Amino acid sequence: MRKNVGLKVFTGLVFAFLLVPLLIIIVTSFGTNSTIQFPIKGFTLDWYGKVFSNEAFMDSFFLSLKVAFIATLLALIIGVPAAYSLARHKVFGRNWIKSFFLSPTIVPGLVVGYAMYQFIVIKFQFPIIQGLLLGHFLICLPYVIRVVGSTIEQLDFSIEEVSWTLGCTKLQTFIKVVLPNITSGIFASFMLAFINSFNNIPVSQFLSGPGVTMLPTSLMNYIEYNYDPSVSALSVVLMLGTIVLMFIIEKTLGLASIS
Amino acid sequence: MTQRRIPYIILAPGLILLILFLVLPLISAIYPTFFDGGFTLANYTSFFLDDYNFGIFWRTIKISLIATLICVVLGVPTAFYISKSPKKWRGLLMSITLFPLLTNSVVRSFAWITILGQDGIVNNALKSMGLISKPLTLLYTEFAIVIGSVYLFLPLMVITLVGILENIDSEIMEAAETLGANRLVAFMKVILPLSVPGIIVGSILVFTGSLTAYTTPQLLGGNRNIMLATFLYQNATALGNWQGASVIALIMIAATLIVMKLFNWVAGRMDKRGEASA
Questions:
Q1: Average pLDDT per run of 10 along chain B, which is 278 residues long?
Q2: Which of 3.10.180.10, 1.10.3720.10, 3.40.50.1100, 3.40.30.10 would CATH assign to domain B40-270?
Q3: pTM across the whole model
Q4: Smallest CA–CA separation between B42 and chain A, in Å?
Q5: C-alpha separations of A18 from A22, A46, A196, B72, B227 in Å
Q6: Which of A36, A168, A244, B101 has its Cα between 20 and 30 A from that of A195?
Q7: C-alpha of B69 from chain center
Q8: Chain B closest CA to A14's CA: distance in Å?
Q9: What ipTM did this prediction achieve?
């Protein structure tokens, strides 16, 4: 194939567009000036210290981790058996039920958060944290249904039949034969659901209150009133987290499995 | 008899949670917007007849449309390049594309604040070159929201397209060239039509994403360039107008569904074999 210089330059520019803004953030996080500057004049790591000593950031960071983890776990507990049932059993209105399970992706996140806030926090007086957990459960569930569902569909049905013939009950077969064979799908959906819950803003926007603020929301609130490099420093920390997760996924499943 | 009930018992917890915490909350928010004494559409007609509200609706549609177009124009050649590069490069290019997508959207919008702001990189560069004396207003404009949305959703478009383009036989392109088409013509007449299903799926993701986005218009649009999501939030919190917020909520859901149906319909018409409804 001949080299197509035009296409190469075009792609190069697109990648520059994708990466340069993030590189600029990394550089500005080391600046000594009290507002963000580029290029920077001096070099300091103080802003990273400021991030880790900022209680609002740290509290919301741990809350985000906790909520994302519990919501993902809940989605797996409910979603994996449901995905199995949808793939293997004769269920009346199967496609309809599957679309219903995927429906949280169609309703805009802010609307989900708004409706839940009005209904369960205002009307039924649930604590905000429970609303937040349920909202994030709704974010996670479609990933589990979709990813685990397609893994089960690719699994050879005859190994289950063999297991039944050899005397295992259906539950034993599910636990001893099906689950070990779909761990990659479960892991991939866990990663996807966790990242998306951790990064989500719209759903949490209404479902927050005193002491219950997720990290992206607390970062957003901070940006509205501040323009200092600690925002850049926190952004870099979050990017490092993304890189670590991508590295784990690449080493275990390959990034192709989630894209 | 009990055997047949098992699937429904397994599916029940998920269905019940979805009904209790998604369907009922939505109904309870939206139902009252249709009833004021008796059934009425007045809340919706008055929303669209009001110039201010309609302006926000129109701005949202316009910005989403422009962002989608730019994502297609930038995304198709990029995805084509990625799909045709050697395997070890492809993995690296895909990770670079995936990285922004997995990075928090607040971080990604914030990057553009530092670039477009009054004291931002673009203004400082232009000032030091002596091209401008007063900083340009780039941030808190519709332009800033468009850039931010493209930046947010371009990776999604590229990844969707790479999945489709990888399956196109590279010999097709060579055949077109052998038959006398130059590269650009071959691309336009062969690759582009074959990538229509990918463009449609990608466009649905970008368009509905921009249409309902909250973070980007909030951070890059400022108070004067409100979009539907930020308007909903403003109505519910600052204005305390729950009825108005619910009206916007339904408009956002309806717009999302209409866009999805419309794009799939267009795809069905363009793809004569009718395979594009994926």
A1: 79 96 96 90 95 97 97 95 89 92 94 92 90 91 97 96 85 81 80 87 96 95 93 93 95 95 85 48
A2: 1.10.3720.10
A3: 0.91
A4: 21
A5: 8, 28, 20, 15, 24
A6: A36
A7: 11
A8: 7
A9: 0.90
